[in-house]
Structure formats: structure tokens, C-alpha cells
């Protein structure tokens, strides 16, 4: 299963939009999704590991996929291999 980690901060003005994109995609596709505050203990480990300099940063399957808010169609293409949820 595809694993998506969205790294954010509470003061980031663009992060809520990125979160909304992936929350919507989560309703359509089945993938693991986690929002991680860059200032948390877990977030700090990821910031160091991936040398994250700005948020939002989206990590997909252990690789930085997007820095900044992705276009919705590009985000969808990244998770599309996931199984679509039947409505």
C-alpha cells in the first residue's frame, strides 16, 4: 500500500490546502496517510533524514515527492496506483 506523509507546521499558510488535497484523495483512494508536524519528535527525525527546508513537504513511499502544495492532478497521479474505493 502506498504510504503518504505530509510534513507541516501550524504556522504554515499553505499547509491547510495541501492537507485538504490529500484528505480528499484519501476518500477516493486507499493509501496510508499521515500528517506530521515538523516540530514534533517524529517530524524532526524526518526533517533531518530528508533535509526538509520548507513545508509542506510530501513524502510518498519514503521519497520526497512534493515540496510545496502540489497541483491536485499531480497529487492524484502520485496516489493513483492505490486501489480506488468503490462508492
**What is the structural class?**
alpha+beta
**CATH superfamily heading:** Glutaredoxin
CATH class: Alpha Beta
Q: List segments where confidence is low: pLDDT < 50 over at least 5 consecutive residues.
A: none
**What is the arithmetic mean of pLDDT?**
94
Q: What is the CATH third-level topology name? A: Glutaredoxin
User: What's the SSE pattern?
Assistant: EHEEHEEHE
Q: Separation of termini?
A: 20 Å
Strand order of the largest sheet: 3-1-4-5
Please explain how this structure is put together.
This protein is an alpha+beta fold and 87 residues long. Helices cover 37% and strands 29% of the residues. The protein is built from three helices and six strands; from the N terminus they run βαββαββαβ. A four-stranded mixed β-sheet has the order 3-1-4-5, with helices on both faces. It has a two-stranded antiparallel ribbon with strand order 2-6. The chain is globular and about 35 Å long.
Brief overview:
The protein has three helices and six strands; from the N terminus they run βαββαββαβ.
List the helices and strands and how they pair.
Elements: E1 3-8, H1 15-28, E2 29-30, E3 32-37, H2 41-50, E4 57-60, E5 63-67, H3 72-79, E6 83-84
Parallel strand pairs: 1-3
Antiparallel strand pairs: 1-4, 2-6, 4-5
Output the keywords.
two-stranded antiparallel ribbon; about 90 residues; about 30% strand; alpha+beta; Glutaredoxin; 6 strands; single chain; 4-stranded mixed β-sheet
